[in-house]
Amino acid sequence: MDVHIENVRVKRSGRTVLEISSLHFHARQTTAILGPNGAGKTTLLRLIAGLERSRTGEIRVGGKPVQRGQVAYVFQEQVFLRKSVRANLELGLRLRGLPRTETDERIERALSLLGIAHLEERRADRLSGGEGRRVTLARALCLRAPLVLLDEPLAGLDEGSYAQLLDELPQLLAAFDATTLLVTHNRQEAIRLAQHLVVLVNGAVQAAGDKRDVVANPGVSQVAQALGYSVLRVDGRHVAVPPGALRLGRGPVEWTMIVEDVLDLIKSREIIGRVGDSRVRVECPTTGESIHRGDQVFVHAEKAFDVRCDPTS
Amino acid sequence: MIDLLFPDATLLAIVLRSVLVSGTATTLAVLLGVPVGYLIARRTFPGRTVLLGFINTGMGMPPVVVGLVVWLLLVRSGPLGDLGLIYTSYAMVLAQFLIATPIVIGFTTASFQALPPQLGELLAVLGAGRLRTLWTLAQEAKLGLLVAVMAAFGGIVSEVGASMIVGGNLERSTRVLTTAIVTETSRGQIERALALGLALLALSFVVNLGLTVVQQRTRP
Fold first, then answer.
1. Centroid of chain to Cα B157
2. Of A110, A216, B15, B103, which residue has the fewest beta carbons closer than 10 angstroms?
3. Angle at which helices A159-176 and A100-113 pack, to 10 degrees?
4. A60 in the Ramachandran plot: left (φ > 0), alpha (ψ -120 to 50) or beta?
5. What is the overall mean pLDDT for chain A?
6. What are phi and psi of A108, to 5 degrees?
7. What are φ and ψ of residue A272, in 5° steps?
8. Which residues pair with B128 in a beta bridge?
9. Among partner residues A71, A77, A81, which is closest to B140 by beta-carbon distance?
10. A140, A73 Cβ separation under 8 angstroms
11. CA distance B112 to chain A (A)
12. Is A143–B126 a contact, with Cβ atoms under 8 angstroms apart?
């Protein structure tokens, strides 16, 4: 089922936190919703799930208003009943009035796919972060809902659990076989898991479309930043450079920069270079010369895009 | 020995009356107090904090003051005097209900507020209606809710001031364990007063033990 959003606006304490004139999510495909903190990503999911209300506009799933039971929602926080994993999975199925045999079959399949069959009788609220996250995904999976909303499903995991679950997520998303909306602030997750990208900044959609198109043409600086690009202001224009592609020294696409700016970029690991032992000393990796505060240096990238900077965002 | 002290089976009648009056008042307080506490815990509205302040004050309200207010309402010349409830068990139930309700609301609000705030939203997304959500969250908050019931019952079964004022301590209709203890003590019947005191303690223990067994059956 596709999802269409038209003219919605969510206000909180008099402030507009989400305003979308038109947005479409493709049926049975995964769309990643990217954006910085406070961009309105979670609010958008809550709106679709019916946990927030818009005084205007409408949200249609498969051409109709959202119905109870159509949505499976994985919250960013792990929320469980103080009961067993099985009881937590059963709850949603019981509310749907499914017969016992089907409930058992769905739970077994979901637990098996997530690799947590051994946790079935354990108390869900006492599991580790990684185990708990798998239970939240299993709970969503066994609902077999046509619309799946995942809010930062990999948040708060340790490095090992994160990498393992990230590897398994494509298979899991295929198992959902649903229209899936994945909220994340991690561009790598978004690009790896989704077919489509939506970039939200300050409650407004800044870019939406096929992920290759959005990545290849970020358009505005806020979208470029959400995608992890370094945005530089050089020679009176804004330039977006893919992550990790900036180098000190001369190259195919090059600019001159003041050392202070370069230092900041090196510290934020956006430029590959070496920082000297003092706060103002930078060693140019190509020439080995020391460069000083106020000097002009060359930086270069293999690839870069001009982007617009929207002063209102 | 009990037969010697209470040859006319008055002890049993007094115990039963105490159970009936305080049990009914607790039940009514739970029926009103749990939904009200649930709403206060889950909703935000203007004046919520002030309301909670009143409820928390009510949790420590002196029973004798509640008794006096109910007496003023129900006495023959009072606004509800025509109902003819003064010096009946109904008046005692009403007074004890007013004492117990803030206790139930206060503990219920705290119990529901201690649950993860997203739990209600999870149930809504899973498709639970309002009653189902209340029931499921009440199960999650069971420990605290049973504390509410125990505190409410314990508070009213042991109070004497309100029952004395609005019930009148009439031997065959409104005498309960606490007022009987006062009467027997004032008559110098210390053995009878002590026996009644033991009966009150035993009643309180049996009820609380039953509730504790339910509370601890699925201890987290």
1. 7
2. A216
3. 140
4. beta
5. 85
6. -60, -45
7. -85, 115
8. none
9. A81
10. yes
11. 13
12. yes
A-chain CB neighbours of B135 within 8 Å are: none
Structural Rg of chain A based on CA atoms: 23
**What average pLDDT does the segment B76-85 reach?**
92
Greater pLDDT, A7 or B2: A7
Q: What is the model's pLDDT at position A287?
A: 63
User: Two tokens at A71?
Assistant: 């949505």
Q: Considering the entire predicted model, what is its pTM? A: 0.79
Please, which residues bridge with residue A258 across strands?
Answer: A296
Cα separation, B132 vs A30, in Å, equals 32
Helix axes B10-42, B142-157, angle to 10 degrees: 140
Distance, CA of B91 to CA of B94 (rounded, Å):
5
Beta strand A3-12 pairing with A15-25: antiparallel
Beta strands A30-34 and A179-184, pairing class: parallel
Q: Is the pLDDT of residue B121 over 80?
A: yes
| From B119, B132, B139, residue closest to A79, measured CB to CB | B119
Residue with tokens 């009103």: B32
Among the residues of chain A, which ranges form H helices? 41-49, 85-95, 100-113, 129-143, 159-176, 187-193, 211-216, 221-226, 259-267
In the prediction, which pLDDT does A312 show?
53
**Interval A114-126 mean pLDDT:** 93
Going along chain A from its start, the domains and CATH numbers come out as 3-216 (3.40.50.300), 221-306 (2.40.50.140)
